[in-house]
Every structure is written in C-alpha cells, then in structure tokens.
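Appendix B. Raw example, untouched.
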Amino acid sequence: MASEDVKTESAVTQIVNFAEEAKLSKEEIKPIQYQLLSISKSLVAGGVAGAVSRTAVAPLERLKILLQVQNPHSIKYNGTIQGLKYIWRTEGFRGLFKGNGTNCARIVPNSAVKFFSYEQASKGILCLYQQRTGNDDAQLTPVLRLAAGACAGIIAMSATYPMDMVRGRLTVQTESSPYQYRGMCHALSTVLREEGFRALYKGWLPSVIGVIPYVGLNFAVYETLKDWLITSNPYNLAENKELSVVTRLGCGAVAGTVGQTVSYPLDVIRRRMQMVGWTHASSVVTGDGRSQAALEYTGMVDAFRKTVRHEGFRALYKGLVPNCVKVVPSIAIAFVTYEQMKELMGVEIRISD
C-alpha cells in the first residue's frame, strides 16, 4: 500500500515537472515572438515616417538638388519661390514631384533601418556606459546619443546608397535633357552597364562623413531637448511627463535645422560627385545643352577645392534656404510620425524611453 502511494506521488511529481517545463518553454518562446513582432512594427513605423515626411516636402527636395548642381554660368533657379514657380511653369505639377517615387523607394528602407538601428545602438551604448561607470541608473548623455545616431546614419546610408545615387540623377533631368532615365530600375541598370558597380557608390565618402553630424545631431538634439522640456518643464509644456504633438514637432524642427546646417557642404559635394561619369551630366545641369564641359572630380577633396575656386565658398551652401525650409518640417514630421505609428501599433519601445 505504501509502495503504491509512493508510486502515485512520484507520477504526480513527474506530471507537475512536465507541466512546469512546458510552461517555462512557452514563456521562453513568447518573448522571442514578441521581440520579432516589435522589430517588425518598429521597421514599419520607421518606413511610414520616412515616406510621409519626404512626400510632404518633395517639391523643395527637388529644387534643392537643382540648385546644388546647376551651372553657375546658366542660372535658371534663383531662390526658393522663383525656383518653384519656374518648375511649375516649365514642367507642371508633376515636375514638382519628379523623382519622389524613387526617393520614397529609397527613404522607406533607409528610414526604417535608421530608426531601428538607433534604438539598438543606443541600447548597446547605454549598457556599455552603465557597466563602465558601475551605475545601473545612468542615462545616455548628449555625446552618447550623438554616437548612436551616427552609427544609425552610417548603417542606413550604406544600405540604401545606390538608390540615393540614381535618385539624384533622376531628379536633375528635365524635359529638355537629351537623355532620359525612364525610372529607378532603368537608371540602376544603365549606370551598372555604362559606368560599372563602383559608380553606384560615387560620393559615398562625403555622404558618410556628412551623415555622422547630420543624423547624429538630429537624434541627439531631439532627445536632449525633449528630456530637458520634460524634466525641467520651463515653459509648462509637459503634462504627466508627456509632450504634445506640436511641442515634439518643434523639437524635431530645431534638431533638423542644426544637423542640416552643419553637414550641408558635404551634401552639395556628394551631389556633384554623383554626376561624375554621366555622359550627359553637363547638359542636364544647364538644362539646354549649351555647355558640354565635362564634370570631373578625382575625389572629395578635389570636389571641394574646385567648387570653392570656381564658384566661391558660398557655392557650398547653394540651396540651403529651400533645404532648411524642407528639413524643418521633414525631420519634425518624421520623428512625430514614427512615435505616433509605434503608439498606434502598440509598440512599447519609443525614442527616449
């Protein structure tokens, strides 16, 4: 009788153990599934943020590029208002959004990777910082946020650079250009066939150098400004440790202005280097084929030197005004759309959390 009780008790114990193991196994699987779902939602939120923000300012984006690469001896775009009116008059409404499809095809993965990379990089850097200082309550400093943003910018830029390169060429061609790319795929295949694979990464170095202060400052200024407004609350803008959409738009606008102003000369040089090797670049830049002078730069330093020597230092800031007008709402919309999308989809991780 006693032996039967022992056997029964052993069997019950074994069943309980199996149940415990099954429960633990289920609990281990659930976080992994949850993490994958969160990652997917985060990438979707980043992609939507990029598409919405870029489409909203597409006309200014196109005008900026045209101002950056136009021939100084054949000025067609002279300022923001005049430039937009000229595009409307010569190319119509569709001309204002030329290249936006390609831009969105590039910016959606770029933005998705950038936001996700920033979150992962900031987590890793914070973990290392806490271990180094021995303080588990330590928070990211503005410098560490800058580093995390720089890592995110480099990863996102490198992953999508070929699309950015052909987008630049699609954007500058006009109705009177002697040669027309029919779209992103046609442009990619043409560049590969005529100029080789390395041509898809022309201007990559100044892009990467420029993206470090640009993206780094965007994230660092946005987060630091938000944290300051929430913790100090100098203007009573924070309610229950939360900022309104309008206030966050303001934070994004400040972040975009600072980052773009610092890195803008490198953006000009990147665009000019992307034109190198394109047979019809000179005629596309002038828009009427009068100048057939070759556009040649041996590298980033040479492009800087020739631009400053032939056109002056101010040439490095061509298109800055429409670009700032574009960047202020673009960055602001991107940050707020990203956070709102993640909140809408129920993702707990948000910037600054």
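End of appendix B.
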